Amino acid sequence: MNPFESSPTDPLRAIVLLSGGLDSSTCLALAQARGHACSCLTIEYGQRHQAELHAARVVAETLGATDHRFVRVDLGSFGGSALTSDIPVPKDEVSKGIPVTYVPARNTVFLSLALALAEVQQAQEIWIGVNAVDYSGYPDCRPEFIHAFEKMATLATKVGVEEGRAPRIVTPLMHLSKAEIIQQGMAAGLDYSITLTCYDPDAEGRACGHCEACTLRRQGFAEAGVADPTQYR
Hints:
alpha/beta; 5-stranded parallel β-sheet; about 10% strand; 5 strands; disordered N terminus; about 35% helix
């Protein structure tokens, strides 16, 4: 059987990049709803807070992922981002251009690690919660980046050379608003109270309520007409 095909007795295998945030958790819920066998990959990339790692663990366990791995890659040693260094996280403002919360090369590194795991596990798909509608100006969340990475993956992998194709990069949230993402996640049974979307949570995992991630999350729940279950400090 072709490794890129699945059957009712052998569900399609997917690697889901899971941060524990709203978008990545929705990706996992949607993949699970399709009956995929999901292996989650969470990256400890040198982020200043550990609360999202705990959230990722809870989400994976609650949604019943078949496997969940944590991999350390210290992007914090390079600095250059408010998420990995002492640069203050902007509050109560909307960024213009590429914000200081952008982590250089983060999604390129994340997808490369997911690609390696996909080859080992013979996964047919890699799911990532990038979004080009409500996104914060990150260059590695655009469709152009995803398409370029898929082409590179075909050239750079054993399965790409032998089969002429690599695992597909699935971006189900790419063209959705935050409200639409929330509606789809709830339809798939996701409890958003276990997710964390904040650039600057406290030690107890409570969201700051004032960073751009919190602002987009709040607006999303309001526009979706759904009560926001987030614990804000």
